[in-house]
Amino acid sequence: MWNNRIRLIASAIIRQRIVRHEDVALLRDLTLIYGGISRDEAGDLVRIERHVTNISSDWPSFFTETLTSHLIWESRPTGTLTIYDAEWLSLRLGLSSVGPSQCSQALIDALASESHDPDHVRTLFAVIAGHAKPVLRPTPPVPSGDNIMLFPSRVYRAGFSA
Hints:
Elements: H1 7-16, E1 18-19, H2 21-32, H3 39-51, E2 54-55, H4 59-73, H5 83-93, H6 104-114, H7 118-129, E3 148-151, E4 154-157
Parallel strand pairs: 1-2
Antiparallel strand pairs: 3-4
């Protein structure tokens, strides 16, 4: 099954270093055919955002609407941005390393306005950007059972040696 309907168009746009009105119209048609986008397609849209600076006036609204729809309404739990999605987006956008792109702030604002908990979205991106450091991730569960012995940084089943 083909997971990415826009890969060839995205690659051509990045190579040409320009997003034209026709490109946005084609991307909109391709992404709306089945009512949503895949994670790979979302990644390609972010690649365009990061690598192309000469953009049409249609790009910001298309980019923010499509990514907001994907991250808030097409992902589970619906209506919420998870820490994993926020980290994925931040890493792809390069928020903590190279700074915001042209549409980064508009995207974060759109995610916050569409989310059930806008403060949560803003806190996630503030933490990711390094402005605050609350603990957001739960600690992983510790394995339990009679046949498991815990050693520093390793888990061994009884009867096995390292």
